[in-house]
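Quarterly update, task 2.4: magnesium ion-bound model.
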Amino acid sequence: MPDIIHLLPESIANQIAAGEVVQRPASVVKELIENAIDAGATKVRVIVKDAGKSLIQVIDDGCGMSVTDARMCFERHATSKIRTSDDLFRIRTMGFRGEALASIAAVAQVTLKTKLSGDELGTLISIEGSKIIDSEPTATINGTSVEVKNLFFNVPARRNFLKSNSIEMRHIIDEFQRAALSHPHLSYYLFQNDMEVYNLPTGKLVKRIINLFGKNYQSQLITLEENTPHFNIRGYIGKPEYAKKTRGEQFVFVNNRFIKSNYLNHAVQIGYENLLPKEYYPFFVLFIEIDPNHIDVNVHPTKTEIKFIDERTVYGIIKSAVRQSLGQHNIMPSLDYNMDINMDLPTKFGGENALNTTRELDYERFRPDARGQSNIRNWEALFEKQENLGPDKLKEQFTIESEIHRKGPEHYPSAIQKADLYPQTFQIHGKYILSPVKSGIMIINQVYAHQRILFEKYLNVLVTDSRSTQKLLFPITLDLNPSDFALLMDIEEEIIRMGFDFNIFGKNSIIINGIPAGISDINEKEVFEGLIEQYKFNKEKLEIGIFENLAMSMARYAALKEGKVLNDEAQRSLIDQLFGCKNPNYSPYGESTYVILDMEYIEGYFKN
Ligand code: ADP
Ligand code: MG
């Protein structure tokens, strides 16, 4: 057999290697900003067009490069930052692998302009798919500018793999935010399609946080500081009542490098103990300063993972530092979550453990049985005035109804409007509505039921374009952070279609003039903010369309809250509307809207 192994041409080898470092436009932004930081820049400007797909340019006022270095920097493993393997454990710079520029130049059209401060002229290098196509002296300012055009122009599979502009831009903003937080004493700018997205002057960390995320963060921050013999931690954590449904705003930096570590994020989360409801995530920006000898940053080409010699100690100290900071700020005893209607929190009646207990009833006992069948009855049959059924009859009925259940929503009897079918209703704990039904007692969860009702209502409004708006007497101004504002611009049309009425009012601000008709008893601002927050969360977690996502988000935020006392009429109306839904059994998020406590079951309690 002939020999078949051969070396890949360098251009292909480069492309393959590039894949590890350059996954998307945001990776280029990250690497170029890191180089600017390492070059001692005081000012970093980032310019992108089409979410970085057509252009990414980073301009710095750092040390610049000599003519030779300007050529060298595009070679693989060319770096000025380390020389020996020992240096790997003394790393203080962002870069050290000497791969970024080589990788970027392998998959894009790059123009580098750079000048040392003492020199008269600078150097221009153009390189495309790893080939230098131009190199000449040029008049330019001190520092370096790297312009990256048409990323993946020569790797169509990769280019096609890129997501929509809004998603790619989101990733760029994420990287930009991390870099901006990591070095607050540098000034940063971000322009997209000639529009200024961020203009961040130098300052303290707290100022940087506010400039990035909005003024209202000022009152949310709690200082954290902990010094130990091996490492120090400092930064800010968010007050628990401002926790969000998305994890987005959680930052851990180790020696000023942003790192992704579920483990350390978890340490913070645990530090909050039960101050946070399930699936809420606090804001935090924490800086760990540690002797580089105690960590290994050379774990992954993107350098966002690191290994600690003693990660468990770091975990433990973060956890107790968070606890202590929360305690010092008197957060623990003074919090009253029940005041915050938007937290989706358990009832006030949950007792001491309210924050951990989401259900007082043991729902599992009533949930669909092991075969995935449901114990939900045929609705009409539920309320029919029939003679009592014996256990055999019940079994029979059960089987038939399971069949209906399996066939899906359209097989449910559509609207049951006969309020007299369920003559008595009773609300308990501001949370459940009880109504006797033929086979026992129906227990409706008012929150989930209302979410289902609103979900179908707003989905219908969106699909049929049949909004109606209630004007606000006093329009409300809402300041958003730039990324939420960008997201809002993406879904502006749909939000209006749902019944909101708003205008853009200056940079990142809007005025809300009206809200969808038929929602009452809400804080419009919270609903709007919540809507965007939930939309982001859904978008990340669920593969659903905009309409469905918006209707789900709206349902979550405009629905009745636990603790809301309903009079008889409201209770009945809720039941009516629920069973007028196409799929009354579950909330849009998959929670059961009601359960039925069988007579048999109840009777079981009274037998020994
Ligand atoms: P690394 O950052 O890991 O060293 P890069 O490929 O990112 O690898 O950069 C290669 C080298 O090019 C750097 O070590 C540095 O000497 C030089 N360089 C890159 N960007 C800049 C910049 N903005 N200013 C000055 N020098 C730079
Ligand atoms: Mg680098």
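Highlight for this quarter: Residues 331-422 have pLDDT under 50 and may be disordered.
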